[in-house]
Each structure stands twice: as structure tokens, then as C-alpha cells.
Amino acid sequence: MSRRTPIWSKNSYGPLILLIAGTYVIGTVADHRWTVSLLLFAQIGTVWYALRISHAHPSLRVLAAMIFLLSLIAGGWNVFSHGTTLLGLVFFAGSVLYVVAPASILGDLGRRRHVDRELMMGALSTYLMLGMAFAFSYRCIAAFQPSPFFGDRGDGTLADSLFYSFVTLTTTGYGDLVPAGNPGRTLAVLEALLGQLFLVTAVAKVVNVWNPRGWRDKVHPPGMASPAEDGTTVNAKLPSTEE
User: Fold this and answer.
1) SS3 7
2) What is the CATH number of domain 14-234?
3) Cβ neighbour number for residue 192 with a 10 Å cutoff
4) What crossing angle do the helices spanning 117-144 and 158-169 adopt, rounded to 10°?
5) Predicted structure pTM score
6) 37-65 pLDDT, tens per residue?
7) Residue 192 is inside which H or E element, if any?
């Protein structure tokens, strides 16, 4: 992908960030079953775009297509159902969708050899999707377990789960919402660890491929050895001192 790709081009990660932001907004106001189904349908479109822009592997596209089909069925059925089991399955489908897409995006980012705007937006998209995936997982657990997910605060709303997820992912930890028991607590620990691991890995990737213009010439001036692209040392030819 060209580093000069317009930010809102169909070949850029820019529109993906807008789509993720749109699903987040829908999630904060999803207080009814039909709005939850609408959120799931919006996620399907978001993940489809993510797989296309990241050039997903054919096997991953087949897996995503199967998840899309099951998600459409679950989302449509959820509109006319009143049980919590189906609602939990809808949240589970949303969580899986937002795990599949980051896997493809990370593969695309790992193939890049330059730090550019697209790499930064792709990394941000992955980070946002992980936060939302855990939020949907918390809602799935709340739908299936008999006890309230947040204890005295009840199960909370999807907006509460989104807030708690991103607070945990960034290890901010306000403490106003806390899972009352497992598996919620274990999942929260996993999210905090993944959040820190992602940031460390992202910074390492940037440092590894970052090569500002003129940096190599300043560190390795003419006449001195300089590292080659493959990590080996290339000895530059020194000027002869013979007459």
C-alpha cells in the first residue's frame, strides 16, 4: 500500500477507524434488543472492511464468512426473542468478530517496513477493536452467569462494559466498576496484560522500522561501516592513502 494513500481512501485504515467509532457510539446507546442486533450488523460491516483492507488470508476470510452467517442469524433472531441465552450468543459473536479482524490487521502491519500514517492507524484500529471485543465478552458472561457481573452494581449496561473494558485495557483502573467474581476477573487480568503487551510490541515495531531521513548517514558517515538491511555489517570502501 502506498504511503501516500489519502486518509479517507478505500485503501486506507482511516475509514476503518470511523467505522469502529460508529459501532462504539451505537454500543453506548444500545439499551434494547434491536439496537444490540443493529450493533452486531454494524460490526459485520466493520470487520468485512478490516479484512479487505488488511488483505486477509483466504482461510481467515472463510472463517469470517462462517461467523458472518451465524452472526446474521443470531442478530435477526435476537430481535424477536426475549431470552438472555440468545442475547449472550449475540455478544459472543460480536466479541469473536472483533478478535478475527485484529488478527488480520496485525499480519498486515507486520509486513510493513516503514513507519507511516497507515501503520499508526492500523495499530490504533487493532487497539480499539481489542477493547470492544473484551467489552462484548463481559456482556456475554453477564448474560450467562446467574449472579450480577458487577456485584452490587448489577450487570450494568453495554456502555458500562465498554467503559470498564477500556479502563482495564489502558490499566487506568478507576475502581468504580469491578467484576464480582470469575470468570470476569480472570478475563479482566488477561485484558490488562494484553493491553500492556500490545503497547510494548507496537513501540518496539516503530523503533525497529523507524528510519528518519538522513539518520543513517549521520550515524554512519561515509568511510565507516554501516549495517545492511539484513543485519550484517557492510564495510564501506575507505579512500586509499597511497599516492
Assistant:
1) coil
2) 1.10.287.70
3) 18
4) 130
5) 0.81
6) 999 999 999 999 999 999 998 988 998 99
7) helix 184-209
